[in-house]
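Continuing the batch. This is chain 6 of the set; chains 1 through 5 are on the previous pages. Same settings as before, nothing changed between runs. Recording input and output for traceability.
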Amino acid sequence: MDNAVDPADLATLKFGVGQPVPRKEDPTLLRGLGRYTDDLNLPGQAYGVMVRSRVAHGVLKGIDTAEAAAMPGVLGIYTGADMIAAGIGLMPKGLVFKNRDGSDMPKPDQRPLTVDKVRFVGDPVAIVVAETQKQAKDAAEAVFVDIDALPAVTDAIEAAAPGAPLLYDGVPNNIILDYHFGDADKVAAAFASAAHVTTLKLRNSRVIVSQMEPRSAIGAFEAETGRWVLRLGCQGALPMRDLLTVPLKAEKKSVRVLTGNVGGSFGMKSSVYPEYVAALHAAKVLGRPVKWTDERSESFLSDSHGRAHDMECSLALDKDGRFLAVRLNGYGNLGAYLSNATPQPPTLNAVKNTIGVYRTPLLEVSTKCVFTNTTPVGPYRGAGRPEGNYYMERLIDAAAQELGIDRVELRRRNHIQPDQIPYTTPSNNVYDSGDFPALLDDALALADWDNFSERRKESRARGKLRGRGIGHYLEVTAPVSNEMGGIRFDDDGGVTIITGTLDYGQGHASPFAQVLSQYLGIPFDRIRLLQGDSDELIAGGGTGGSKSLMASGSAIVEASDVVIDNGRKIAAHVLEAAVADIEFSAGRFSIVGTDRGIGIMELAAKLRGGLKLPEGVPHTLDAKLIGKAAPSAFPNGCHVAEVEVDPETGIAEVVRYTMVNDFGVVINPLLVEGQAHGGIVQGIGQALRESVVYTEDGQPLTGSYMDYALPRASDAPLPAHGSHPVPAQTNLLGAKGCGEAGCAGALPSVMNALVDALREVGVTHIDMPATPLRIWEAIQAAGRKAA
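Output for chain 6:
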């Protein structure tokens, strides 16, 4: 940090930290010149299509491939048995959690292609490979899969009930994890002594991830080197490589992952999927690359889904409205298999994120994680962070209504105050920074809170109900792993940043270049970014949990220090001065007290030109290191939504939206605002539109965008955006992360606003998604009750 450019000099740096610089990649992507996986075609490649179960639960009796194998162009059909015979192993099993009794959760085996039972509609049982994709599709339709159907269960609460159909022999009542956090006796005592208890049953509905680019992969095997090579869109080349070594039973050096442009993920593309392993196996057998690409309707079945939690949430308050304890007790629907991080959102992340910005002495979380005959559930934007904030913010609004206390006052009464920071929560997080009362005040002012009555009056004149809601969130980012910091001065005069996070839509290239430009004075347009080749990486945790800027940015700063140290020694030789007399500032090495110096790019050019250096002097400016790990950061903010409801049709619209966020030091405000806006729209979609629906026998009814409702541009107003940054103390840049915050603020603010609007007609609660039908039915039911 000692080498940072002085803030006073930032005005001379066109693209330094804090500047709203457009995304470097957009001119390429907007002209259709990006290189996504399905854009790639390798010489001699074949095409793979998956054969999937059409029933949700059943015993796999056999697979007849004879007719399909004889069809034109078919090169091979591979089943789970074939892969076992070839030595392909089990899928990775992900995180291990403890049950409340201290035992490890069981982790049932999963094969890339199932061999015993099918457990959801879409469960892959074979891959058909042909010369063309059409030939492979036709042949896949001809594969006969013999399944003895069994009763299915899709709801987590029903799946955990006695007598429910069992997905696995070794998982009684389908409960894979009985999770508990907190001191149950102390929490019970707090509730017993409380002057008031508010309880709500809250559902976080299951959602389709809906990324722009469906999953695609090209598997290859290099017989001469014995290396597996997988090209795909993912969230981190190095984590994906490491996960692939499990089913491939390979050493890390024998697997290479390559990733180009990635069109969205939101957590879903972080896992190894059966299709990747199947494509690699087929490629090795056939001796040629095999390409597989999801179709959108297939992705509804094969991609991990998000959310799917049912919680009973309770808040205990004393006679003055002070929070005593919060308790969550519920279920997490994991679907049919364990994905890479499946149990975490409804358990550990609920623990970390429910307390939010409020002084709450005690917390208890009890979650049963349950298998069901549905598509596996994985991380989805926030992965438990929006859910935790939703529980707390809905409880506060309900408690304020029950107690007759203004909802703003109740929040202020329980805020963690700036002079109480660092503050240790009952979930053992230590908040290092923040000014939560000021954030609330800023958001209310920007939202014109005091003049809401005039807007409500205007809505009533048009026959509409209008409500307002607050989402005062705080989320706990993923801790910063040891991240690679690489800076390479290239032969063509450019500079490449190499790091192990991976941009799947966030726009890493510009902010990372801004950090490097500030610290080394390198021209912004000369900087490239390399993230997607596992062979180039010595460390890397991938992107997820809003940690990328903190991880890669800090590693870039550390690597910059190495560059400067090397440069001083080289410049001392060039300038014929002592190393101790060389200083570095704004991209230039100079002799202290003189005007003699050399720019860093000129010095790099001299090195490329064959500059002769004595022994002991570094021969390169390049740096390659593993940056230091760091604890989580705590992005927070306050969002205010206003919702208008037509009581005749049940249609709800978000008509006004305001956000004020504390993301610490903001590297690029333009990108930060865009990230927050995108998360808000996803939150609005989940609150008012999106939900995956299954029949009783496990058939998905929402199998395409004909019947799954994504929000459109008209569903989301352009939000008013304010910033109240308090620099983080946990990383070199003072940044806090922003990628998941939009969802964390949107879910509670929109749903609180909707309930506020509906309260006029007697509705005091409604669950997500609050579709027009559900709202209309709630209004009718309240009217009947009032009558």
